[in-house]
Description:
Layout: E1 8-16, E2 22-25, E3 32-35, H1 43-49, E4 57-62, E5 76-80, E6 95-100, E7 103-113, E8 116-120, E9 130-140, H2 144-149
Antiparallel strand pairs: 1-2, 1-3, 1-9, 4-9, 5-8, 6-7, 7-8
Amino acid sequence: MQAGDNKVVLIHYTLTSDSGEVLDSSDGREPLAYLHGFGNIIPGLENALAGKKAGDKLKVSIPPAEAYGLREDGLVQEVPRAAFGGAPDLEVGMQFQAQTPEGIRVVTIVGIEGDNITLDGNHPLAGETLHFAVEVTEVREPTDEELAHGHVHGEGGHHH
Ligand code: ZN
């Protein structure tokens, strides 16, 4: 069976950055399971997997536009420390969820200078070209429930 729309695809993967740093890997875990055609994974990887079957291995480099998007300077802003109210000690690298006009965004503290806190609303991997080494371990039909939910249940997928 080939990976394509409405198929459940299970993959082992290693994700490395342009500089060769391993950012994420399914090593030592269950394979990642996703439902093809539902935007469960980044578009560039989903496109690269179309037509693949169990046992296929591929290496693919995905530009930012097909991964987590380009960095937007407008998403970096300074806010006063008071904006955090009673938040615990603030440190560079801390992440918060913020309500924005585009929905919930994760923002990261990227700088602290006195009472000025610099926040970055870009995805941590925005602007990065991502390099995936992938092995397809299984392609199967989804259950009716998985199709209705738009994601995979059980091992490697959602538990709820
Ligand atoms: Zn579900």
